[in-house]
Amino acid sequence: MKTPAISQRGEVMPPSPIRKLVPYAEAAKKKGIHVYHLNIGQPDIETPPQILDAVRDAHFKILEYSHSAGNESYRKKLVEYYRRYNIAINYTDVVITTGGSEAILFAMMSCLDPGDEIIIPEPFYANYNGFAVEAGVTIIPVASYIDNGFALPPIEDFEKVITPKTKAILICNPNNPTGYLYTQQELDTLRQLIQKHNLYLIADEAYREFCYEGGHFSALQLQGVENNVVMVDTISKRYSACGARIGALVSRNKLLIETVIKFAQARLSPPTMEQMLGEAAVDLPANYFDVIKAEYKSRRDLLVQLLNKVPGVYCPNPGGAFYAMAKLPVDNADDFCKWILEDFSYNNTTVMLAPASGFYSKPELGKNEVRLAYVLNKEAISAAVACLEQALVEYNA
Amino acid sequence: MKTPAISQRGEVMPPSPIRKLVPYAEAAKKKGIHVYHLNIGQPDIETPPQILDAVRDAHFKILEYSHSAGNESYRKKLVEYYRRYNIAINYTDVVITTGGSEAILFAMMSCLDPGDEIIIPEPFYANYNGFAVEAGVTIIPVASYIDNGFALPPIEDFEKVITPKTKAILICNPNNPTGYLYTQQELDTLRQLIQKHNLYLIADEAYREFCYEGGHFSALQLQGVENNVVMVDTISKRYSACGARIGALVSRNKLLIETVIKFAQARLSPPTMEQMLGEAAVDLPANYFDVIKAEYKSRRDLLVQLLNKVPGVYCPNPGGAFYAMAKLPVDNADDFCKWILEDFSYNNTTVMLAPASGFYSKPELGKNEVRLAYVLNKEAISAAVACLEQALVEYNA
Fold first, then answer.
1. Chain A to chain B Cβ contacts (< 8 Å)
2. Of B4, B14, B200, the CB nearest to A4
3. β-strands B34-37, A369-373: how paired?
4. What is the DSSP secondary structure assignment for residue A314, as one 8-state letter?
5. For chain A, first and last CA: distance in Å?
6. pLDDT tens profile B86-137
């Protein structure tokens, strides 16, 4: 039987970088070992019952398509939400998307053509690679480093890689995987750069509320670059509603929004029920997020403190999101992350970590780094770090 | 203020072909005119309450990501569903997608590279154009004609346009917009063609249950081309659950499924709540669909009968889906469809139709044709056709 070939695009499409470790985690579990999952961004926080109830109690008889740009009532509600963060927009600046994922893809497809280049500070969220393959665009990485907590690279490093093909800069703020929170000053430096070269600035602000010391400065608050800024957002982490697949793309560039809506029309509409959930979330009590944030902050404080006590480990204090990057006293974090699942256990437990290699495009960078998501409670975090410490001793013995 | 350019891809991305008529329909409604919407595929049938209840009554505390390929329990349930239609598959042949839309996009991206060609009998579902722009592939149309009810074009017409760049043939069966139901013999002809040229056959079977005389013959029932066939599906029309955005891609080609899962991993997961709804739908009583189908059949019979009584109108009897194409005694259906909304009313009502031009790529074809969706009850259909008849008299006066 003849078999037609897979597309080149399909061949170069990267699998999830964490995927290769999954069989080892599953094998460990089959042996009866408890695995602490510090590898994924699935929060353990309960989804607010009120917003689940908004779906449960909704009265409708037909589960209809919504508007391609999302329900007008929800788009208007989001205007109210952003106003609380001093972001002034109109509802016509908002397109509701199927998760932040679709917002990123629509942004890339609307701003860049195949062969165009997008500059992203690395390490970066691994799925940007996948969306770039789908859109046929080339990611040009600019390195950031653990030694200064992954601050924005010097603007000269961006200038060096700008070519006529450069159409956009993409930042994630606060950052996944580093947890770094960009300062207003850093955003302003980027503003000058995109203004000078007339580039798009695509800002992934999925973790906006997760800022533990300073407040968040949004790319939408930059002035004089209203037509350059495209902000992508999601309710996934904010309300522990990852499975809802509701995000948004926000821009004051009217032609860009018209273009994004054409992509939105092709796929008809985002999920209807979850838009009800997203809309209800804007009405959560004002203190809802204080409690969640306090919990994450105490987890971060504990994780960073414990990690830095482990001999040879260095973990800068991340200002936002719920990730931390740590340097381990190993040559190759990929090997170590596999070994700890396959050949190690401590009190019948082990730890699953995300090797940082999946977040870097240059293979020489981040070889001894891992990303840890503090989406487990403090007891689990303590136990997981104790386990990791023991593993490092055995691994290096 | 400088503004960065929209991508070429974004510029050529087609807007919804029905969109340009929407302002005229809205203006008519503002004048107090009732508009019969025969233009869209949003069924008026109630979503089965049992499947909405499956979401309402689900017990979970965190709305988590599902697996990228969809919940295993749902994928296994779909095996049971397809078995009822004599389609034998394994759950590992199924990837749950965000609507049939995403399944089509994933199929195009996995099977074709930018610049590759996909042959589609025209008229065809307008959003295939959008997905083709996103995937950078070229649609090569092969004309079908109203005179034989839009049967599969002769295989020589396909042979004529096959080039080294041809990678796939796409059919929609039963067809949107024509309602044509391809016969087993026609499918077998396609089987020989794809076998000979080693092409993919992408079969959009969104309307599988909507077959009013003969049964449906699925592309997945073709033998000897298991690695060539990719079937895309959706629950939207089947259970009147368009807003759920739950579809599926099914193929026995293991490498293809592995590739599709990489695209699925980039966007993390399809909506979680609606997968529960889709899973519950497989357990609807065996006679659930009989009632729905009888209702649609009686609507089709009425619509086709009434249309063919209107002087100058010809409407072949469609074997499936819930669309009919009709030839009107007008030179330009686009102009007429605008006029009937803007300058006409009858008993304070008018009709919104979809001009067929949006479904053809060759502008000389289908100029006097419209698509009618029989998603309204019989009383409304009768009134709408009476209104259309009067409009044709006035328009041609």
1. 258
2. B200
3. unpaired
4. B
5. 53
6. 999 999 999 999 999 999 999 999 999 999 999 999 999 999 999 999 999 9
The mean-pLDDT minimum among A214-218, B248-252, B382-386 falls in A214-218
Distance (Å, whole) CA B283 – CA B88: 18
Residues in chain A, total: 397
Half-sphere exposure (Cβ direction) of A78: Cα atoms closer than 13 Å: 29
CA distance B168 to B220: 15
Residues 6+ apart with CB under 8 A from A286: none
Helix (H), strand (E) at residue A68:
none
* CATH no. for A49-281: 3.40.640.10
Among B14, B47, B63, select the one facing A47 at the smallest CB separation: B63
Domain ranges, ordered by start, for chain B: 8-46+288-395, 49-281
Closest CA to B236 of A285, A65, A332, A195: A65
Instruction: Determine the residue of chain A that is closest to B199 in CA distance.
Output: A4
Q: A251 in contact with B at a CB cutoff of 8 Å?
A: no
Beta-carbon count within 10 A of B359 CB:
25
Report which residue type is found at B24.
Y
Q: Do domains A8-46+288-396 and A49-281 have the same CATH topology?
A: no
What distance in Å separates the CA atoms of residue B284 and residue B287, rounded to the nearest whole number?
Answer: 8
Determine the pLDDT at residue A148: 96
Interatomic CA distance for residues A65 and B42, integer angstroms: 7
Q: Which fold has domain A8-46+288-396?
A: Aspartate Aminotransferase, domain 1 (3.90.1150)
CATH 2.40.10.10 fits B8-46+288-395, yes or no: no
DSSP A91-105: GGGEEEESHHHHHHH
Structure confidence by residue, pLDDT tens digits, B360-374: 998 789 999 999 999
Q: How far apart are CA B316 and CA B308, in angstroms?
A: 9
Pairing status of strand B323-327 against strand B369-373: antiparallel
